[in-house]
Amino acid sequence: MSDDQAETMAEGQDRSLLIVDDDKPFLSRLTRTMESRGFSVRCAESVAEGLEAIAQSPPAFAVIDMRLGDGNGLDVIAELKAKRPDARGVILTGYGNIVTAVTAVKFGAFDYLAKPADADEIYHALMAVQHDKAELPENPMSADRVRWEHIQRVYELCGRNVSETARRLNMHRRTLQRILAKRAPR
Q1: Do both 7 and 72 map to the same domain?
Q2: How confident is the model at residue 161 (pLDDT cuts 50, 70, 90)?
Q3: Same domain, yes or no, for 19 and 44?
Q4: Which residue range or ranges hold the Response regulatory domain (predicted)?
Q5: pTM over 0.85
Q6: Strands, sheet with 111-114, edge to edge from the N-terminal-most edge strand
Q7: Does residue 170 fall inside a structural domain?
Q8: Which residue of 4, 64, 123, 164 lies most exposed, with the fewest beta carbons within 10 A?
Q9: Running DSSP on this structure, what letter comes out for residue 134?
Q10: What are the pLDDT digits (tens) for 41-55?
């Protein structure tokens, strides 16, 4: 879809947008760009500020960083969906993996983008009519990566409780903590 088609589609729409990110330079750049594209933007730098903004007036659109200084952006997207089910939220994160993408969508995110995402990608994710079918990857995940993804999935399903995850995976808690602290294998 072209920018013109997206603009036409959204003309009668509520164009309120909440951006929640603790990276101040990124937040100010994205705010200016989205305002230039016709959005009425409110900013928040923490989970608490994001929840407060939603309580005051739930926006039609949201761009939320997953990892914030005072918590997880998934809490903000879940609250947005509870207050305004038709809202379109996009989760941004520097820790892109399948588990967090699935979790974000389950919490109500419309889309999920790995940082660094530019304003065009974010805009197109917000305005997308439907998700395109994923293409077959040229380089599928390694066995180590699949194992790491599985551990991350169980960790999320256990409510990010390390002890419960270790028990369910039948592994030592400290071993699990070391795995969780490392970057994802390629």
Answers
A1: yes
A2: very high
A3: yes
A4: 16-130
A5: no
A6: 40-44, 16-20, 61-65, 88-93, 111-114
A7: yes
A8: 4
A9: P
A10: 999 999 999 999 999
Please state the domain count of the chain: 2
The share of the chain scoring above pLDDT 70, in percent, equals: 84
**112 belongs to a structural domain:** yes
Report the C-alpha gap between 67 and 92 in whole angstroms. 9
CATH number of the domain to which 96 belongs:
3.40.50.2300
Question: Which of residues 18 and 134 earns the better pLDDT score?
Answer: 18
Task: Give, in order, the Cα–Cα distances in Å from 129 to each of 78, 132, 140, 149, 152.
Answer: 21, 9, 28, 29, 30
Question: Do residues 88 and 27 both lie within one domain?
Answer: yes
**90 and 165 co-located in one domain:** no
On whether residue 108 sits in a domain, the answer given is yes
Report yes or no: 50 and 44 within 8 Å, Cβ to Cβ.
yes
User: Please, what is the angle between helix 162-169 and helix 143-157, to 10°?
Assistant: 130
Q: How many CB atoms lie within 10 A of CB 67?
A: 16
Q: What are phi and psi of 61, to 5 degrees?
A: -135, 155
Residue whose tokens read 């918590």: 71
Task: State both tokens at 125.
Answer: 């994710």
- The domain of 42 spans 3-127
Average pLDDT over residues 165-181: 92
Q: What is the pLDDT of residues 61-89, one digit of tens each?
A: 999 988 888 888 888 988 999 999 988 88
Structure tokens at 105: 């969508």
Integer Cα distance of 90 and 19 in angstroms: 10
